Amino acid sequence: MSTRLASGGRFIDRSKKQDFTFDGKRLSGFAGDTLASALLANDQMLVGRSFKYHRPRGIVASGPEEPNALVGTGQGGRFEPNNRATTTELYSGLKAVSQNRWPSLEFDVGSVNTALAPFFPAGFYYKTFIHPRAFWKHLFEPVIRWAAGLGNAPKEPDADRYEYAYAHFDVVVAGGGIAGLAAALQAASAGASVLIAEQSPNWGGRAPVDGDEIDGKPAGAWVDATVAKLRTMQNVQMRSRAMVAGIYDHGYTLVYERLQDHAPQVNGPRHRLWRVRAGRVIAATGAIERPLSFAGNDIPGVMLASAVRDYVVNYGVSVGDRVVIATNNDDAYRTAITLTEAGLSVPVIVEARADAEGDLVKKAEALGIRVAKGMAISKVKGRKRVEAVQLCSQAGEGAALETVKCDAVAMSGGWSPVVHLWSHCGGKLNWDDAHAWFAPDPSRGPTNQDGLVNVIAAGIASGAKDTSSVLADALKAGATAAKETGYKPAAIKAPKVDAPAEAPMLPVWSMPQGASYELRSKTWLDYQNDVKVTDVQLAAREGFESVEHTKRYTTLGMATDQGKLSNINGLAVLADSLNKDIPQVGTTTFRPPYHPISMGSIAGDARGELFKPIRKSPMHDWMDANGGFWEPVADWRRPYCYQKDGESVEEAVHREIMATRTSVGLLDASTLGKIIVKGPDAAKFLDLMYTNMMSTLKVGRCRYGLMCTENGFLADDGVVARLSEDTFLCHTTSGGSDRIHAHLEEWLQTEWWDLKVHTVNVTEQYAQIAVVGPNARKVLEKLGGMDVSAEALPFMAFADGELGGIKVRPYRISFSGELSYEIAVPAAQGQAFWDKCLEAGAEFGITPYGTEALHVMRAEKGFIMIGDETDGTVIPQDLGLNWAISKKKDDFLGKRAMERTHMTDPDRWKLVGLETLDPETVLPDGAYAVDGSVDAYGNKATVGRVTSTYRSPTLGRSIAMGLVKYGPDRMGDVIDFPELNGNIIKARIVDPVFYDNDGEKQNV
Amino acid sequence: MLILHCPNCNTDKCETELTPGGQAHLTRFGPGSSDDEFENYLFNRPNPKGVHFERWRCSYGCGKWFHAARCTATLEVFGTYSAQTTEPPKALITKIKKKRPDFEGFTK
Question: pLDDT-based confidence at A152, cuts 50/70/90?
């Protein structure tokens, strides 16, 4: 059984007991524990069920590479699935639950899958559920989704806060082990600004566990001294619990800092996501031990040798009283020695190498530990925990020679440098035969904007194996980073290291070498995704030869651990199956983040109201307080209508329309874009930008204009006013102001830069208030201050003046067909002028109206709306706007495009009005018209569609606009609009101007 | 996440502050041009692996357009320069040729 030892544990404080629960069971550990070490201290070997076969799984590792011990932590808005117990720090009150089991961890119905394993080979889902097609969505997928998968998504909104931080550093050091510390010290001593980020709470990495001596002191003492020195340096930032998650283009580096996970009572954000621009990144990311591939290597109690050592040294936890070691290298002997010195029993070291003679081997033998050389584990016995191992000859096929009772197995298949950060931006790797690992190729590193390599691997992450070469390599990396960011590093002498000499390892990809099918089908490569040796071999046989294809077919290396343990072993099996060398097969692509980061940290403060801040008109608050029923319009909020008590939205819209048509309405039109175009060449420029002629516009007058793209499609419309000979004010749609301003600037700066023109977007400088209706003039006359008569201010004119004591510029333009003044006032005076209009208009029942009334009234008049009648494929000619396309101008944007045959095709759908035969039926928006013909593919041909559709209170019936093939030539024809339910709505093609066709009402 | 130097602001800008604008130095074909000329101008773009001249706008900075010479494969930036020009500066071409001996020079 696993248990807490009476003494030891570098990280734990035995005076601080921490109570927690696991699946509701009350347990306790110590401050400094991880959830994993605390579970082991409580003999909780079984921590989860596997993804596919629901096999019992235990803790394998002691760090972020852990594939099995995934738990849900927290509750409610703080619940988070898929946290690794090995990186979850223990605190009092922690509530953790296991995953992927039902009804309980001990008794899991899904574990029947393990008996059915022969029927679930690689690609099982692809092969089985392909037919019948319809079953996938309704039957197979829901059942599979319920049965498979890892943790559940939280149901409540995240209760915590998250934040971003931005920073620039000369050098970012990823990893706070001895390599990272040495590199940081070297770079910082030269004067470079340095951020050193360590993913765990503790500095020093593995060195203090491994027991080497640096400068005559235990590695731990050297680490403490170096950390203390770095802390005194002003140019160094040290961040623990901070992981370099990814490196992106040009030195953009993400650092994920966990501020609260270990202490939820601390105030402030839970996670901080650093977005750092780094001159150079030193990847001192260490290495991860690899499992060995033998049958039953997934049974709880089979662990990495380094992890077994970590639990003893760092947490004072023994994973078992009798631990069998299985290895192909010297490093695992450190575990055997550590266990023996802690008073635990190591019955045998199963050594795959026939001759193992290194210092550590000799030391283990001197301690009296039996070393069985040239041997292998043929099979682990046990179900929910290890009971024994059967030994066989490594060279053979697995015939058991003896059985050794034990309660844990510590395995080591060698080490793999953590090359993720090196690889994120394209750094290439070399295969090293001696160590059987991929290591960075410094001549093919990732490069920055200057074309220079900007990531430097250091320590074992660069392929330096022993402590002495790790430190020398790291100091060199620190010096290089400092030099390349403009500093002059002084030589720091490499510390003297006292460490045992290690003998070469032996690559072992299968244990035993000739393992039978039966053994291989119980040999796990990827614990998290339940991928076995036989699955990869099957994939290779079925033609999935590319490593990327094999990954997707078998799921090897997928999910939250992304194959940190499994990749190299899987590649080796694939290479062997394909009769290729490992480097020929290559690795899958390493993508950020290195390790999962929270969704909250990615969102940061961009949540709720801050997700996309809204733009507000100067009268926003008044509208909000007076029944404004908001709708989003571009980044703005505009009232759809103003609801009175007990009134439906539709009733409000109809009331607003009737009040405006019969007396006077008031509209906030402030959101319309307003762009000043000024300069000696302003008129010439606008002639190029608009389809119609703007240079002939007289000062003091307005003209409706269209803008097309160079491709000929209608992009925006609005009224242009000529303020002076060289100054125009161009109105755009509400959604178009920024886009159209950018469009004008693009052409000015990149094509017609010789034109003397300046543009300014003044959209938010003015409130624009439309006073609309037959009594509009009377309201303004009451306000007084300027002549607003038809003679002084005729239709399509504007004037500067004063109304009610406020400086105004009324434009006589109308989007409703009524007598209308759109009055621009300085934004700060908007509310004051609005109030004056309400007061003066009270006797006429002046009625504020919203966007829906505006839409209905413009549709009654047959006015088009950009985004309703247009969709990026519609040209002005489709909309009967030929009158607004100049024939006199040599050039304008879109002119050449409109000459193309497709644009002049008589078959193009054109704008018409539509009247349903039943006046009470309103056509659905976007409905298509059919005429019984079929298209080239035999489908029902569509011959038109509805673009705008409303119930018109003015006309007392439904009205619609639409684009219809040959529409203008088919006046009076009745066409069919089928609904989804099969019902057909019949509508008559009519003139799109439903109301006041002669325009008499607006021109008074 | 690129860094490009805005020649107007004379500062380095992060990609998030910029808007890309596609290939630089296009010759506009307007009324009077042939269908082929117009099609090439409007739609047909090479997709080179290597040196590329492109347009960027400093949209969250000065608002000005500028041009950049960049390697599409390695993202190395050879230089940025004014948008008010019909071809890249000679000095920049020389610099690129030095770094990329295979580069055949700017062609329209």
Answer: confident
**Nearest-Cα residue of chain B relative to residue A894:** B30
- How far does the CA of residue B22 sit from the closest CA of chain A (Å)? 12
Is the ipTM higher than 0.95? The answer is: yes
Q: Which residues does chain B have within 8 Å of residue A896's beta carbon, measured at their own beta carbons?
A: 29-33, 38
Indicate the range of A109-113, A318-322, A938-942, A949-953 predicted with least confidence. A109-113
Q: Is the pLDDT of residue A573 over 90?
A: yes
Strand partners, A381: A388
A254, closest residue in chain B (CA to CA): B1
Of residues A669 and A1004, more confidence is placed in A669
Residue type, A666: L
Scanning A590-649 for CB atoms below 8 A from B yields none
In what side-by-side order are the strands of the sheet with A13-22? A25-31, A13-22, A94-98, A70-73, A80-84
For A773-834, strand residue ranges (E) read 801-803, 806-811, 820-826
Distance from the first to the final alpha carbon of chain A = 97
Of B14, B38, B57, the CB nearest to A896: B38
What does the DSSP assignment read for A518-542? HHHTT-EEETTTTEEHHHHHHHHHT
CA atoms within 13 A on the CB side of A699: 6
Residues A718, A705 contacting (CB under 8 angstroms) = yes
Determine contact: A877 vs chain B, CB below 8 A: no
- Nearest chain B Cα to A738, which residue? B59
- Number of C-beta neighbours around residue A133 at 10 A: 8
pLDDT in tens, A878-914: 999 999 999 999 999 999 999 999 999 999 999 999 9
Residue B17's pLDDT is: 96
Read off the pLDDT of each residue in A493-501 and give the average, rounded to a whole number: 93
For residue A940, what are the β-bridge partners?
A934
The residue of chain A nearest to residue B24, with distances taken between CA atoms, is: A750
Instruction: Classify A188 as helix, strand or coil.
Output: helix
DSSP state string for A867-882: TTT-SSS--GGGGT-G
Mutate to test the interface with B, among A248, A448, A449, A450 (most CBs of B within 10 A): A449
Residues of B in contact with A891 (CB under 8 A): 30-31
Amino acid at position A61, single letter: A
Rounded to whole angstroms, the Cα distance separating A147 from A656 reads: 56
**Residues belonging to chain B with any Cβ–Cβ distance to chain A shorter than 8 Å:** 1-3, 14-15, 19, 21, 28-33, 35, 38, 42, 55, 57, 59, 63-65, 71, 74-77, 83-84, 99
Q: Given this model, what pLDDT does residue A237 score?
A: 98
Range B19-40 average pLDDT: 97
Is it the case that residue A676 has pLDDT exceeding 90?
Answer: yes
Q: Which residue from A449, A751, A897 is facing B77, i.e. has the nearest CB? A: A449
User: Is A850 within 8 Å of A628 (Cβ atoms)?
Assistant: yes
Cα–Cα distance list, A479 to A191, A207, A223, A446, A885 (Å): 11, 22, 19, 19, 67
**Residue A626: pLDDT band by 50, 70, 90 thresholds?**
very high
B-chain residues near A753 (CB < 8 A): 83-84
The CA–CA distances, whole Å, from A768 to A339, A635, B90 equal: 81, 17, 51
User: From the list B1, B55, B64, which residue is nearest A250 (CB)?
Assistant: B1
Q: Which residues of B touch A167 (CB under 8 A)?
A: none
Instruction: Tell me if chain B has a CB within 8 Å of the CB of A753.
Output: yes
Is residue A751 less than 8 Å (CB to CB) from chain B?
Answer: yes
Using a 10 angstrom Cβ sphere, with 0-12 exposed, 13-18 middle and 19 or more buried, the burial of residue A399 is: exposed
Strand ranges, E, within A603-695:
628-633, 636-642, 665-668, 673-678
